[in-house]
Each structure stands twice: as structure tokens, then as C-alpha cells.
Specification:
three-stranded antiparallel beta sheet, elongated, 22% helix, SGSH_C, single chain, two-stranded antiparallel sheet, alpha+beta
């Protein structure tokens, strides 16, 4: 029988039948191949006034999405390239970079593979 302590990981309760693999070797950079699903993970930030910025790379293409969740809760209208929202996008990107630094996330969207590989 699995104990509650064993089942609790990061405040997420896992069923005893769930099999998982640590992402630590990938994050640390000691393991290069593995789950492609974990490559190019998006980074996102949600503001107090209910805006959401998402950044990710798809096959070396940097993608940015910006949503006003007050008016568009289902994220159907990407405002990232709308000049009317340029300032909100810049503010959100600045906040995202700040949060990434806080958590020692050094992904660089401007470089191939986020700057994680030579």
C-alpha cells in the first residue's frame, strides 16, 4: 500500500498505478534524449488584471500569444500582433522574463532550442 507521503508530489496526489520518470536529468542537461513531449515547453504568465501571455518555440519558430481573459476566456483571439496591445505585450514579456529569472529558468526564446544546446 502506498502511503500518503509517497503519493504526494508537489501537492499533486498521484494514483499508485501512475508510472513516471524524473525530468531532473533533462533540466540539468545530463540527459539529451527522451520524451519529445517535454521539448519546447511554453512559458506563460497571467497578470492580476487577467491577461495571459504565452511564449513557445515550434520547430525553431518563436510564437507569442496574448489574451484578454476578461473578454476572451476561451483564448480564441490572439492579440500579440495587434499594435493596439503592444504595451500590454511588452509589460507581460518583461514580467515573464522576471519570473523566469526568479525560478532560474534560463530558456532563451531567441536562440535555437532555447539556447539549451550548442
Amino acid at each position: 500500500m502506498i502511503s500518503e507521503l509517497d503519493a504526494q508530489v508537489g501537492r499533486i496526489f498521484w494514483a499508485p498505478t501512475v508510472e513516471s520518470q524524473s525530468l531532473y536529468p533533462y533540466i540539468k542537461g545530463t540527459k539529451k534524449q527522451g520524451r519529445d513531449a517535454y521539448r519546447d515547453l511554453p512559458r506563460a504568465v497571467r497578470t492580476a488584471d487577467n491577461w495571459k501571455l504565452i511564449k513557445y518555440n515550434v520547430k525553431q519558430w518563436e510564437t507569442t500569444q496574448l489574451f484578454d481573459l476578461n473578454k476572451d476566456p476561451y483564448e480564441t483571439r490572439n492579440l500579440a500582433n495587434d499594435p493596439a496591445f503592444r504595451q500590454k505585450k511588452q509589460q507581460s514579456e518583461t514580467r515573464l522574463v522576471s519570473e523566469m529569472k526568479t525560478y532560474h529558468d534560463f530558456l532563451n526564446f531567441g536562440k535555437p532550442n532555447g539556447g539549451t544546446q550548442p
